[in-house]
Amino acid sequence: NKRFWTLDPIDGTKGFLRGDQYAVCLALVEEGEVQIGIIACPALCLDDCVGHLIFAQKGNGAWKRPLNDESSPLQRIHVNVDIKSMVQSVEASHGNHSDQQTVAKAAGVDNVILMDSQAKYATVACGEAALYLRLSSYKENIWDHAAGAIIVQEAGGKVTDRNGKPLLFTAVKMTENSGVVVSNGTIHNRVLCAIPRY
After folding, report:
1. Among residues 89, 62, 87, which one has the least CA distance to residue 77?
2. Record-annotated residues binding Mg(2+) (predicted)?
3. Which structural domain range is residue 187 located in?
4. Binding residue per annotation — 113?
5. Are 101 and 86 in contact (CB under 8 A)?
6. Looking at residue 13, what is its pLDDT?
């Protein structure tokens, strides 16, 4: 019975200020589940083009197009099951980098790409990375994950918390979840098994 939009007008504020990755993120949530997710990544380079609009609707797949070319046809996006890269937040407060990289290595992922914002979700969804971990000790805000979660899922990936539970977007804070694990799906169980339990 609860339907609402969540918006992050400048996700990755520090990245924006540095001239690095940032995103504008919008998601429609119904009954705690994301139905539509839209991420605009003005600095994300994919297919030799900088700036992309990436979006998904539950049950209808995930898509992208260049931000600067509205006439460009939509391209369906898919995760990549062969890639061995991980995207990780620039901010150390979003999870211990060393611990997260240890978990990634246990799942066969060894190349680390640092970036800000939900551009990390877009990178996994577009097949440029296999994994994004955010093993923070605090409860996450929904606007930091809602749009990206549906996009990765509709691109064929998997998104859960560190315990394998689906993310629940019922309130401002994700109180029912602990951390966030985003993957191409193939390595998801190996990643969950490698995460230390507290």
Report:
1. 62
2. 8, 10-11, 144
3. 85-194
4. no
5. yes
6. 84
